[in-house]
Amino acid sequence: MRLSKVREFVKMSFERLGLSESSLEAVRRKGFEVPTDIQREVIPRLLEGEVDIIGQSQTGTGKTAAFALPIIEAIDPNEKTVQAIILTPTRELALQVANEIKSLRGKKRVYVYAIYGGQPIGPQIRALERGVHVVVGTPGRVLDHLNRGTLDLSSVRFFVLDEADRMLDMGFVDDIEEIMRRAPQEKRILMFSATMPMGILLLAKKYMRNPEVILVSRDEVVPEMVDQEYVEVLPARKYEKLKEVLGEGFYGIIFCHTKRETRELSERLRRDSFRADALNGDMSQAARERTFGRFKEGKINVLVATDVAARGLDVREISHVINYSLPMNTEQYIHRIGRTGRMGKRGKAITFLKPGEIGRFRDIARKAKVEVKRSKLSERIPKRFREEDLEREYRRRWGRKRF
């Protein structure tokens, strides 16, 4: 198909959603070919009506563009007031959402700014004083600005909760409710989430007016574009097996439980000539941004991270996610592997299992409603190791009690 034909196809695909020519031009520059399910469902509703929306969709399906494009269309550039506020659970996600909105605004003079903790508050105050149309921020820092009087939400028309389930899990519900009370009553509330826990439904019932619920992926908890497998291996052999995975074409994230593990593993990989670096909560925000920037630019291809540090990371080209440490629960597993297999590109998730962990992992996979294959890299675990781990698991659950 000739390039001109492709461009016309792209234009018509998004044109049916009711977007302006300016937004269509921005979409073309981004390289979006056709709207994703969540974009197709949400964009027309936001452009046409005054409804509140609860959107459930798996990670990596273009939720940001789904709410960003209609918000950009509705912004009045001549009013130097905050017309939309978007709350995110982490600093990294706040920056990514802000950058995504900037890339979609085209030639329209919409000023977007991210505010979050871990950075000096002075530059943020000065930016807000100059005039910002869209504020993207973490709940704690947004509330800080409100209490200081440096952020005014009296003109807000759109109130967005991005990754709402994560924010509730992290204990932000009181901050969110306080921020909502500081915004006008006549505003449109949009909640986007991968899951729909009771906390979100209660929040919606309390603050939203007959919201439309859009369930794009109710039965697809785990991204369908991710091939999943597990590797059974003895602890002493785990690092050697990891090196077999980090071959040509690898570009991904290795998840560990602790900050210390990320440092030690990344240093060991660098000694073996891998382009690796660590990302964890002990690092300053500036250091985390530098590391993630190097990863996004391809200067390093292996990011060794904790779950907290990796929340909200959005890189479409990630080929692999490796669970070097077994996830604690199904939600953590889903969050981790959701970093790959994004926007129509296939990805691979590999989970390393020590003796005795296979039972816990099967339970995680069962709750996630997925089938995970045994990798060819798996080793035969000697019977004595299995028996020792069964004994430890028995004692962990029952102590020395015998039946």
From TrEMBL:
Domain named Helicase C-terminal: residues: 238-389
SUPFAM superfamilies per record: P-loop containing nucleoside triphosphate hydrolases (SSF52540)
EC number: 3.6.4.13
Claim: ATP-binding is one of the keywords in the record: yes
A GO molecular function held by the record: RNA binding
Domain Helicase ATP-binding: 44-214
Domain (DEAD-box RNA helicase Q): residue spans on this chain: 12-40
Keywords: ATP-binding, Helicase, Hydrolase, Nucleotide-binding
Record bears the keyword Nucleotide-binding: yes
Family under the similarity heading: Belongs to the DEAD box helicase family.
Name used for this protein in its record: RNA helicase
Organism: Thermococcus gammatolerans (strain DSM 15229 / JCM 11827 / EJ3)
Gene, per the UniProt record: deaD
